[in-house]
Each structure stands twice: as C-alpha cells, then as structure tokens.
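Open question from group meeting: does this chain pack into something compact, or does most of it stay loose? Before anyone orders reagents, we agreed to write out a predicted structure and look at it together. Recording both the input and the output here so the notebook holds the full record.
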Amino acid sequence: MNQKVLFFSTRSGLKLSKNIAFFYGKFLGKVRFLEFSDGEYTPCFEQSVRGSKVFLIGSTFPPVDNLMELLLMCDTASRASAYNITLVIPYFGWARQDHKDKPRTPIAAKLIANLIVASGATRVMTMDLHADQIQGFFDIPVDHLYASRIFINYIKKLNIGQLTIASPDMGGAKRARSYAGYLGTDVVICYKERKKANEIEFMNLIGNVKNKNIILIDDMVDTAGTLTEAANLIKKQGAKSIRAIATHPILSGNSYEKIHQSEIEELVVTDTIPINQTKPHDKIQVLSCAPLFAEVMQSVHKDESISNKFII
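Structure tokens returned:
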C-alpha cells in the first residue's frame, strides 16, 4: 500500500517548513489553532490524516510553547489514525542537559525524548545534536543529520589559503577534528573554564594560529560569549582572519551586538532557528538546511538508505 505523504508545521517554524516542503515537492497541510483566553491552545488538522505518512516539522527552541505545540500536533495525528508520524526537529532544544553534572538536576534531553515517544511519534529527524548519545534516549529510530554537508561546500567555495579549523571549547574538539580531516587542515582548540552557565572565567588557546585564516566550528551559538571570546583571543595570537560556523543560531540576549563588535568577520549559520531581523546581522550569513532535510525525508518515505547523505 502506498501511503499518502502529508506535511504540517508548528507556527514558529513556518518559513523553514515551507522551504522543506517546496524542495520535497509538497505543500504544507493546514492546521487551525483554537486558543483559550488563558493562553491554552489546541491544534486541529483541517484534512484527514488517516492512513497517511505524516511529517510534523518544528524546532523546539524557547519558549516552551514551541515544544508543546509539536507534542500536541503529534498526539493529534496519532489519535487521528496516521500510518506513521515523523517529527522533523531541525533544532532539538534542551539538548545541553544530556547528563547530570551535579546532584539534584534533571536530564532534560531524556525527558523530552520520553515526551516525544509518548505523544505517538514513530520516528525523529534532527540535525547536529549537542551530544550524539541523545539518539540513545529514544526508543524509536532517530535520523541524526549533520550540517557539515552544507558547511563543507561553503568552505570550499571560499577557497581560503592557510586555513586552520578551530574549536571554541574542548567539547567541540571532535567536531573540529572531523572538519579538519575532511579539509586537510590543522586544528587549534580553545580551553575555557566557566563560573556558571553562559559566563566564562578564563580561556586559553592550544595550537598555533599566527598568520592563519581561522574558521571556528560549533554546533550552536547562544549568548555568543564563547565564540566571540575565542575569536578575540585567536586574533591576539596573530591570526589573519576569523570566521565562525554554527549550526543553530539561538542568539539570545545581546549576542547580535557581541558578534557585531567582535573580531569575527562572518558568522555562518543554518535556518534551523529564525534570525531576528531587527538586530544587527550584517556579519551573519544564513544557509538553508531545507534541501538536505527534504532529500533525507524522501529517502525515508521510500525506505531507502540515507548513509550516503552524511559527510561527518
């Protein structure tokens, strides 16, 4: 039996969802939201999903409504007898809470995984999880895509000489080594200590950057504190130019201003999270992840292997 494929989107992810549907060759289905005066809401699909393969698209960045919306839509599709339900979550929120780093704290990423499975999802598709082990938190298949396939092509087109890949912290060293191995470059690593979340106490540099063109690699940029501190440190050590690449542009607080005032010449991100167009963003270049998601979704629908979709 050849099931019909249907696409739906959360309200916060409409632009990316429309692009994914466009590259897939589909249109988004219509969802109506009924809202109560206290802020409670309920989604309602305006077409039948019975027996269909349903793709629900939406990133789970704050506020928490973005996650709740996706969970409610998944429950709706499950109770309306969808054949299967794939949650396409370009940015998986709460992924930084993947373990207990001190007593009496949650493992939020595992809790979110449990909620997603409980809502009726049969598959999850996401990009550049903060920690690879989060895939194991799910009891359903997870397709973990890498933005490296997007960024590698961009870096090659820059045709930069004396290129060196850098990680802004020790946690990203593996990612930086992977990029460097593929591009045939050296690697430098910044070592940092934090006072508390989003506040750096000190930072040191491991490796030589003198007269090199540096590309900092990270999975996300939140307050931009780590990224801009690393860029400023690398510049002081004699680097010729500094660019940064980060998959998920969370960009909270005064991060736009920090980037604008830093030594970073260009920050390249994907559209997993919408950019705030009212902030200074002349240094920010956005590459779309829509074609990659659409390509993998087509393979999943046809039950084809997706191993050839990965670079790193």
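Observations to bring back to the group:
The first strand starts at residue 5 and ends at 9.
Residues 148-287 form a domain with the Rossmann fold fold (CATH 3.40.50.2020).
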